[in-house]
Specification:
Chain lengths: 487, 150
């Protein structure tokens, strides 16, 4: 500006000088009447005008250079998206503009830097949030329990695959719908809503709820928790986790039934023992023969109690996997013969024919001799129990080379098993009601056989029967791939 | 005429002991080995008392009791229930089906006799303990009576 002033003053001075000179020349010329001087009077203003124009041009050029300089710097800042200071000559005519501009730009630069820092911070936070969200989703999606998450408007915002399968819907994250439009289980919807509306602070409750899953009613423990807002004042959503407890309930029921059955089975022989002892104490048996009979009954019932406890222990050891199995190469026929020899008197007492169909040449199987012996004893004594007098119990062994198995078959001509009882006879304490009167049993003998053959020896036990025409129990064990053994 | 008692249990030893104890005390005992037989026997013989096990083949003791309540003739038969399981019935429910007492197994035959005497009361005293009838019944064959009747 100072330069502009200088130029302005210089121009005014020059013009004034030119005009004065011109006026003087004109006056002198008029007084003297001289020719030639008027030309001089005309030339002087012209020279002054030219000089002024030159001066203005110089000023204009200098100004343009300064503005161009500033403009270039601003352009560079815009290009580089960087705010800096505008550099001009301190004495330049633009310095009064650039000073406040630089002050403004300095402030802008600070603000920009701060915003950039904050932006970077937010980006990091956002990335962390995104990672955490993915993490949480991965956790939710990897849970085998059904999980549904709703927001404060009861809209479904997240659900994993088990939830979609169980409740029969497909979640579209872009379409937020109210849970009652997606979940058709009214009780579950009500539970989620009441958790949201009644939620105060951190809340978690577990409700048992039955849901039909593919036509099968399944019991779920539904854990409902509130998601609280940042301030912790209001509920911003609900998480419902549906854990299938059907199997646990079944196991708990099985355990209760087992304990109840065991206590019943233990009490039965104990009742007899106690009653007969009391009869003896009270002198109700007044002759020696009756007393002897009582002693025998007591001894028999004590044996029954012992057998029952043995069976329960054996079954529970096998089921819990703590049983000691002494595997050795054994010949099925030899073990079966041993069992037949032991049971022959029992069959004879009942006037039954014990048919021995054991093959003389056989291969070995790797098994626990005592356990297989116990299994055969149980099968044959069952056959003896449920075959009326005069019947036949046959025991056969054979080898199936093709399938690589040794077979043992125990069949009888007894009462047989009803078709509806067949699938259940290996269950613990299951007794065929129609033949329960024929013989005493613990209801555990066949369960034990099943465990010995299938659980311990990876063999196979099967049964066929026709009502009134007897039953055939057979089991097979894998053959040892070794040389033939001759009995 | 001695009081007649139907004893029902699927355990032959229990039938044996109870028959003997009650016969020795002068009662006439009829035995059944399942619920259906017990019901049949009660309907045919109209005994003065039924002693029944809870868990029996075909029909449980409780089902027998309920069936007895359906029939005008058998409605009044008092019942003593034996059970080897925890038997959870309110007193009111028990009297509804005619159960006077629940005795848990293992039981004492002596105690059963006391309960029987309480239920049947002094008004119907058992026949002479030294009479021919009781001596004949000293060694009852469990189940045989019911088989003959069945």
């Amino acid at each position: 500006m100072r330069t502009a002033k200088k130029f302005g003053l210089a121009s005014v001075a020059l013009i004034s000088l030119g005009v004065s000179i011109a006026c003087c020349v004109m006056a002198v010329a008029a007084r003297q009447g001289q020719a030639g001087l008027p030309e001089l009077g005309c030339l002087a203003p012209l020279a002054v005008a030219t000089l002024t124009t030159l001066l203005l041009l110089a000023f204009w050029r200098r100004l343009r250079r300064s503005v161009g300089d500033v403009s270039q710097q601003l352009d560079a800042m815009a290009r580089q998206k960087e705010v800096g200071l505008v550099m001009v000559e301190s004495s330049g005519e633009l310095s009064p503009i650039t000073r406040p501009l630089n002050q403004f730009l300095t402030g802008l630069k600070d603000t920009l830097n701060q915003l950039r820092c904050e932006n970077r911070e937010l980006q990091i936070q956002s990335r962390i949030c995104e990672a955490e969200k993915k993490h949480t989703e991965a956790i939710i999606f990897s849970i085998s329990d059904a999980v549904v998450v709703t927001n404060r408007f009861d809209e479904l915002i997240l659900a994993n695959e088990p939830a979609e399968k169980l409740l029969g819907f497909r979640l579209e994250p872009s379409l937020r719908k109210n849970i009652d439009q997606i979940i058709h289980d009214g009780t579950l919807v009500r539970l989620i809503r009441s958790t949201r509306s009644g939620g105060r602070g951190y809340m978690r409750k577990v409700v048992e709820h039955t849901i039909d899953s593919r036509g099968q009613p399944r019991v779920f423990a539904v854990t409902l928790s509130c998601v609280m807002s940042d301030q912790g004042q209001e509920v911003s959503g609900v998480v419902a986790v549906l854990h299938d407890v059907t199997r646990e309930k079944e196991i708990a029921q099985m355990k209760t039934d087992f304990v109840s059955n065991v206590s019943h089975e233990l009490r039965t022989p104990l009742s007899s023992i106690k009653a007969y002892v009391e009869m003896l104490q009270d002198g109700e048996a007044d002759d020696e023969k009756t007393r002897r009979e009582f002693y025998e009954i007591i001894a028999g019932e004590a044996d029954r109690l012992n057998r029952l406890i043995d069976n329960i222990l054996n079954i529970s050891r096998i089921e819990s996997g703590v049983v000691r199995v002494m595997r050795e190469p054994i010949v099925l026929t030899a073990v079966a013969r041993q069992a037949l020899d032991v049971l022959a008197p029992q069959a004879k007492a009942k006037n039954l024919r014990l048919a021995d169909k054991l093959v003389p040449v056989y291969r070995q199987v790797e098994a626990d001799r005592d356990m297989i012996y116990q299994a055969i004893i149980n099968l044959v004594s069952n056959a003896i129990k449920y075959t009326p007098e005069g019947g036949t119990v046959s025991v056969a062994t054979s080898i199936d080379e093709k399938r690589g198995v040794a077979l043992c078959e125990v069949s009888d001509t007894g009462v047989g098993i009803e078709p509806e009882d067949l699938p259940r006879i290996f269950e613990k304490f299951y007794r065929v009601q129609s033949s329960v009167k024929m013989a005493k049993g613990t209801g555990l003998g066949l369960t034990l056989v099943k465990h010995i053959i299938e659980t311990v020896h990876e063999g196979k036990l099967s049964v066929t029967s026709e009502r009134g025409k007897g039953a055939t129990f057979s089991f097979e064990l894998p053959l040892l791939k070794e040389a033939l053994v001759h009995a | 005429m001695p009081n007649r008692i139907v004893v029902a249990d699927d355990e032959s030893h229990i039938l044996h002991v109870l028959s003997m104890k009650l016969s020795n005390a002068g009662y006439q005992v009829l035995t059944a080995m399942d619920g259906e037989e017990a019901l049949e026997l009660c309907r045919n013989e109209l005994p003065d008392l039924l002693i029944t096990d809870y868990q029996m083949p075909i029909m449980t003791g409780l089902e027998v009791c309920r069936a007895l309540r359906q029939d005008e003739r058998t409605r009044g038969i008092p019942v003593l229930m034996l059970t080897a399981r925890g038997f959870d019935l309110e007193q009111a429910q028990m009297s509804q089906v005619g159960i006077r007492e629940v005795l848990s197994k293992p039981f004492s035959p002596r105690e059963v006799l006391v309960k029987v005497q309480e239920v049947l009361g002094a008004s119907a005293p058992p026949a002479g303990q030294d009479g021919a009838d009781s001596s004949q019944r000293k060694k009852p064959d469990p189940g045989r009576e019911c088989v003959n009747r069945g």
